[in-house]
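quick one, two chains, predict together pls
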Amino acid sequence: MRRATSLFVVLALAGACGGSTFNERANKSLTTALGATNAARDTFVSWDKQHQLDLVSASTTADEAKAKLETYRAKRQAVVRAFTVAYSAIAAAATALAAVDTQKAGFDLPALIADAVKAALEVKTAIDAVRGGV
Amino acid sequence: MADWKKAAEVLAMALRAIDLVIKRFSKDRSLDKAGDLLTILGALVESVNRGDLEKLDSALAEEELQRLIDALDENDAAADQALKDKFDDS
C-alpha cells in the first residue's frame, strides 16, 4: 500500500509537468490525476476488504467485531470524502478545459487544474491517516 | 445546430458538471467563484452547437466515484457475512 501511494504521488507530480502548450499540459495533468486517483482507489478497496476481514478475525466476540468495524468505517469516511473532492475537482477542471476557450476564459483555469491535482494528492494523506490510526 | 436529443444530453451533463463545481467551491470557497460558474455554464451551452459531448468528462469522474462507493459496500457486506459466519453458530 505504501509503495502504491508513493507511486501515486510520483505519477501525479509527473503529470503536472512537461508538455508544450497549456492545454496539452493541463490535459496530461488531469488524465494522470484521474489515473492515479483510480489506482489509489483500487489499492485502497483491496486493503479495506482485507482489513475488515482481519478485524473480524481478531475479535473474540460478535460485539467486539461489530464495534471494531463500526469504528473503522467511521474513520474510513475521511478517505471517501477525499476521493469525492478529488474526483469533483478533476471533473470540474476537465469540463472547463474541454468546453472553454482558455484564451478568452474569464476565470483561472490553471488554478482549477492545480486544485484537481492537489485534491488527488490529498487522497494519499487521507489514506495514510486511516491506515495509521486503525 | 445539434438535434434536440443531443442538446438535452449536453444540458443534463452540464447541470451535473455545475453541481460538482458548486459542491467543490462551496466546501472551500463559499461560492465566491459564482461568476466563473456562469462562464462555465455559458461555454457548456455553446458546446451544444459544437457537438463536444465526448469532451465532457464529469460523468466519467462521477462513475469512478460510484465504483469506489459500490466496492466499499461490497467489502462491508463481505465483512458482515464473515462476522455472521464466525459468531452466529457459537
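The first helix of chain A runs from residue 2 to 15.
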